[in-house]
Amino acid sequence: MDYEVELQPGRDQTEESLVVRHADGTAESFRLHEYGRVYAIPGLYEEVVQRRLLSASATVLAERLIACAAAAGIDPSELAVFDLGAGNGVSGAELRARGVGTIVASDGIPEARDAALRDRPGLYAEYLVGDTDDLPQVGDLIRKHALNALVAAGALGLGHISAASFHRLWTAFPPGAWFSVSLHEDLAEPGGSDFGDYLAGFEEREDGGRILVREPFRHRLTMAGEPITYVAIVARKARG
Ligand SMILES: C[S@@+](CC[C@H](N)C(=O)[O-])C[C@H]1O[C@@H](n2cnc3c(N)ncnc32)[C@H](O)[C@@H]1O
């Protein structure tokens, strides 16, 4: 790593920022949520989010999905996952490390795909760039790769992927499909966000499914060292 990083706490998660001092004496400052700038610097996301802020979402979601599948008699190699808001591949790498074969990714920004191809070549069978609603090829991709699970690690709420967009994607998955997602505990409550409301009505709707896991966990630390609690949610569609 030929740079040093200073963390600058903010009023909330979306305000936190970084100063990166490069070996050539230049420095740049940007918010952690400016993902394009974070991914553009090799190793920066892993250094800040995983190593210093101890992010756990990608690991927890992979573990819970695989445990639920195992309880249903399904081997990780039988899971074929769509990694939504995949970033530079941290979430995909956690799935692969546990034996998931096929993984297809999407992210809203090209810098995420470029970083995943740069840092984890071969991890993803395909990597789509664009907002999920603007990716008409997703239905075909789900069929082509026989995708049967949807993972979104740290990618829902906070101006990221909306519940309506997530649900449209979910309806494209086959009977018996799984999802494993994480979001801030406040946003997961009814009235807390569009996602909280979506989850509250999820089991009642015909095109929803059954929630198998709903577990609070420490998603990561803030830059000030305070824990941020997210909820891991694993659900499965009826097998039809
Ligand atoms: C906190 S990062 C998580 C990345 C990865 N899942 C991980 O576990 O490291 C959130 C990602 O969601 C992506 N994202 C935000 N809004 C999106 C959208 N509407 N469609 C697709 N990706 C989106 C961001 O670009 C960013 O890469």
Global morphology: globular
Q: Structurally, how many domains make up the residues?
A: 2
N-to-C span: 51 Å
Q: What name goes with the CATH superfamily of the largest domain? A: Vaccinia Virus protein VP39
Q: Which regions contain 5 or more consecutive residues with pLDDT less than 50?
A: none
Number of beta strands: 10
Main sheet, how many strands, which sense, barrel?
Answer: 7 strands, mixed
The CATH architecture of the largest domain can be named as 3-Layer(aba) Sandwich
What is the CATH C level class of the largest domain, in words? Alpha Beta
Q: What's the order of the H and E elements?
A: EEEHHHEHEHEHEHEHEE
**Broad structural category:** alpha/beta
Q: Helix proportion of residues, in percent?
A: 25-40%
CATH fold field value of the largest domain = Rossmann fold
Which compounds are bound in this model?
S-adenosylmethionine
Radius of gyration: 18 Å
- DSSP helical segment count: 8
Assess the beta-strand content as a share of residues. Answer: 25-35%
What attributes characterize this protein structure?
single chain, 240 residues, alpha/beta, Rossmann fold, 2 domains, seven-stranded mixed β-sheet, 10 strands, 30% helix, 26% strand, globular, binds S-adenosylmethionine
Summarize the structure in words:
With 240 residues, this protein is of the alpha/beta class. It has helices at 35-40, 44-52, 57-71, 90-97, 110-119, 138-144, 163-171, 194-202; strands at 3-8, 17-22, 27-31, 81-84, 103-107, 126-129, 149-152, 178-184, 210-221, 227-236. It has a seven-stranded mixed β-sheet with strand order 6-5-4-7-8-10-9. It has a three-stranded antiparallel β-sheet with strand order 1-2-3. Helix 3 packs parallel to helix 4. The radius of gyration is 18 Å and the shape is globular. The model has no long low-confidence stretch (mean pLDDT 96).
